[in-house]
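Good morning N.,

You mentioned wanting to compare the apo and holo forms, so I went ahead and generated the holo version with magnesium ion. This is what I fed in:
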Amino acid sequence: MSLNEFDFIRRYLQAQPQQDAVLLGIGDDAALVRPEAGEDWCFSTDMMLAGRHFFADDDPADVAHKLLAVNLSDMAAMGARPHWVLLSAALPALDETWLAPFCQTLFAQAAAHGVALIGGDTTRGERVFNITIAGTLPQGRALRRSGAQAGDDIWVSGVLGAAAAGLQHLTGRIRLPENLAAPCVAALRRPQARVALGQALLPVAHAAIDVSDGLLQDLGHILTASGVGADIDAERVPCLPLFKKALPADAVWPLLLAGGDDYELLFTAAVAQRAAIETLAAAVGVSLTRIGRIRAEAGLNCRLNDGSPLTLVRQGYDHFD
Ligand code: ADP
Ligand code: MG
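and this is what came out, ligand included:
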């Protein structure tokens, strides 16, 4: 019998007994350990394969950007400050016309985030990259998936659906007008990890995840980990200005709610924090939108403004679907 990605993680990987110094093992955006009192360390790793996560003929600078951004995004989702990365690369050839722009962009983005490359591994093979990232946090403060409380607002940063629409445009499944195609393809190729936002949310958010596999699926991870449910106002979910006008209605909701590759932060916070959250959004220069509420009763209800329920066949992305 074939498992889905999350069943594999739960049934086989999460089943191992946890060690004491490990505050948080498998099951969140990153692991947390406490080598010494005072500071927690945060680790995550993400892999990108040609033909699955990027096209073989993609611009190497875009590949480098996304590779680091998706790793930074998991640090952002924990509220961690990233410090170090290790890079493993399988390459078909040591072609400088490919590698020079790849490295230039990798190091430029690393420098912009104060992150240093401290090691890795190189081998010959089909193009595959893996980054392992480590960051730090004040002791006990990480934003876990498990902290959501009944009554919390549900917030999301930026806009959703753009990257998924960009991918469908590039693969010819949908045809976007040029003024929408450009920002959607940019969202796909150059996601912006919300690292400063994640750290700014530490004092106010109860739970957080980065939206990498689709809003509903990633919200589902928060709900399961926290033992709560949620009501989502679908029409409040933020998208690019032209998104709903330019796309056929049946394409809008799957892209927006289940598209994936957004790398925005989805978090929950008490209603009393609304003003503080608006202030920090302005301070870090990222738009934040309230899209629903956490409730005690399990389940995920997504409704349109007229009250009708919105149900999607797929809630998000699974590598083994
Ligand atoms: P994210 O999308 O935030 O990177 P994933 O859905 O990839 O998270 O993974 C969920 C959890 O499962 C994470 O804690 C991750 O470290 C863990 N995980 C996934 N694959 C493996 C693996 N092969 N070995 C150990 N842990 C894994
Ligand atoms: Mg994540």
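Residues 60-78 form the longest helix (19 residues).

Happy to go through it together on a call whenever suits you.

Best,
F.
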